[in-house]
Design goal:
The chain is mainly α and 173 residues long. The protein has helices spanning 5-26, 42-52, 55-70, 86-104, 109-129, 135-142, 147-172; strands at 29-30, 39-40. The chain has one domain (5-172): Arp2/3 complex 21 kDa subunit ARPC3, CATH 1.10.1760. The N and C termini lie far apart (38 Å).
Length: 173
Amino acid sequence: MVFHLKKEGFSVIRVLLSILFIMASAKFMIPLPFHPVPITAQLIAVYFVGLVLSPMESFVAVLGYVVSGICGLPVFCGGAWGSPGSGYLVGMIIAAPVIGILLKRGFSSITSCIGGCAIVHLGGCVWLAKFGSPFSFVVAVGMTPFLAINALKIAVVCGGLFLYKKIKQKKAD
C-alpha cells in the first residue's frame, strides 16, 4: 500500500479548516423567544462541508466540532452538551457524510442537502422528545419553525456553489 503524504496532509488541513468553519458559523445565531434552540449558521457550514469534502472527511470534521464542544470548548451556540440542541448536533454528525454519499450517487446538491436536513431534524426531535413531550408536539416545535429558514440555508449553499462552479468554468474557458 502506498501512502501519499501530500494528499493525506491536504485532507487533514481541509478537515481542520472545516472544523473551524463550523465553530465560527455556530456563533452567528438568532435566539427564538418560543424555542430553546436558536437559528444559527451551523447548518450552512454542515451542508457546505458535506458537499465539498469526502463523506469520511465531512464525518470527521463534524465529529471533531462536536467532540470539541463536549470537551468544554465554547463552540456550541446555545449551551453545553446535553442541552435541548444536542440532538441536532448528533444529526449533523450523520448528515454531513450522508450529503456527500447522496451527491456521489448522483443526487443533486439540493436533494442531498434536503436529506441531510431531514437527518438533522430527526436527531433534534428525538433528543427533544427525551425531555418528556409527545413526539407530535416535538415535531411541531422542534422542526416546523425551522423548515423555511433551512430551505433558505440550502438555497444559499447550493446557489453559492453553483455560481462558484460557473465562474470557475468561465475562467477555464
